[in-house]
Design a protein that fits this description.
Elements lengths: L7 H22 L12 H8 L5 E5 L5 H4 L2 H9 L3 E5 L7 H26 L6 H18 L1 H8 L3 H25 L3
Antiparallel strand pairs: 1-2
Helix pairs in contact: 1-5, 1-8, 5-6, 6-8, 7-8
């Protein structure tokens, strides 16, 4: 059995590989440019939500199924718009903080991939065996939540498909690191 502590280097390098792949996808390939669009009457919408605390909101809002069946709420749904609104803090996005959090998440993913690998793959396993398991775990981790964004929050399925492609790339690069660095 391989101990998790001995896997610190592939954990770190898999996170670095995912971070680099993500940077290439988002800065060079730019196929995520269609993920969002400007809202019509942007200034009026911004004025209407200004002062709303940071959070995720839905409108029309119903506190439960009983309220959801209220004719007044039903009319609001019919009249529209129906939306999920995420409000971030005012100010320029702090990319350093955001990228640091992304890298930290990639490290956490690497730790869990290593944890599962050390309990399922023996030392000396062949590259492809490690690659398959590490790639599958990594793909599922990055892709797993995306479908729920389309199901529950209205994210277009085309966005989710692009995120699935990202997750596949992340799974492949991380799997390559894990396969190459697995203890022999």
């Amino acid at each position: 059995m391989v101990s998790l502590g001995t896997l610190w280097l592939p954990t770190l390098l898999s996170a670095v590989a995912v971070f680099i792949a993500s940077s290439i996808i988002h800065m060079l390939l730019k196929y995520h440019s269609k993920d969002v669009a400007p809202v019509p009457n942007e200034d009026r919408v911004m004025d209407a939500v200004r002062g709303t605390p940071r959070g995720v909101y839905v409108f029309p809002y119903a506190a439960g199924m009983k309220e959801m069946n209220d004719p007044a709420i039903q009319e609001k749904y019919k009249r529209g718009p129906v939306a999920v609104l995420t409000v971030l803090p005012s100010g320029v996005v702090n990319m350093g903080k955001t990228l640091s959090q992304w890298f930290a998440m990639s490290l956490v993913v690497g730790v869990f991939v290593g944890y599962i690998l050390c309990h399922t793959v023996p030392a000396g396993a062949e590259y492809l065996g490690v690659f398959r398991i590490a790639g599958t775990i990594t793909f599922l981790t990055y892709a797993g939540a995306e479908a729920s964004h389309s199901i529950w929050a209205g994210q277009p399925w085309s966005n989710t498909l692009r995120h699935f492609i990202d997750a596949l790339v992340y799974g492949l690069v991380a799997a390559g690191v894990w396969g190459a660095m697995w203890p022999r």
